[in-house]
Design a protein that fits this description.
182 residues, mainly alpha, Four Helix Bundle (Hemerythrin (Met), subunit A), three-stranded antiparallel beta sheet, 3 strands
């Protein structure tokens, strides 16, 4: 009987395949199957989280008298698209935040990342203004004060909520802090 052993590493699949007695076995296949199952579980969890978030949004809309499903669908689509459009803003902010945590990052690197972040935010604001005009064309909220107030209150449109707590409050103040009076 001839013993023949071959070992092949395939980096793409990380398969370790020894051919012993002419029989090939994949020792990495269970690990690969586990990774695939893990990715599928994560995707299913994200889909469930998204479905739950949509249902919460619909509930809030119903609480504030946005009952008709077509209007809810328009608003859900708007929120979904706006969230996806913020990916660039989130990435630029994470880059800046990462640099700020690095003690060896130069002032020039931080300044550049800050300029990039501000540029991305400015573009996002322009896109948002255009998207609000399109949303208004679809719903006509600017001619319906109750609907517009509801959309502002639900933080779907407008930036009024950013001024409620003030800058750098991180939501810890229900009202602006008062100066110490003597």
């Amino acid at each position: 009987m001839q013993f023949k052993t071959t070992v092949r590493l395939r980096l793409a699949g990380l398969l370790l395949v020894p051919a012993l007695f002419g029989t090939a076995k994949s020792f990495a296949q269970p690990a690969i199957n586990s990774l695939v199952a893990e990715q599928q579980d994560k995707a299913a969890k994200r889909a469930k989280e998204r479905a739950d978030a949509v249902e919460r949004e619909r509930l809030m809309m119903r609480i504030y008298d946005i009952e008709d499903k077509p209007t809810q669908d328009i608003l859900i689509d708007f929120l979904t698209q706006e969230s996806a459009k913020r990916d660039d803003v989130r990435a630029a902010r994470e880059k800046l935040q990462s640099l700020m945590r690095q003690k060896l990052a130069s002032d020039a690197q931080v300044a550049s990342a800050l300029a990039d972040y501000r540029a991305v935010v400015a573009k996002s604001k322009e896109d948002y203004a255009r998207d609000l005009l399109q949303l208004d064309e679809q719903l006509g909220y600017s001619k319906n004060p109750r609907l517009e107030a509801t959309l502002v209150f639900l933080d779907i449109i407008g930036d009024e909520d950013a001024y409620r707590t003030g800058p750098a409050s991180f939501g810890i103040y229900s009202e602006p802090p008062k100066a110490n009076a003597k």
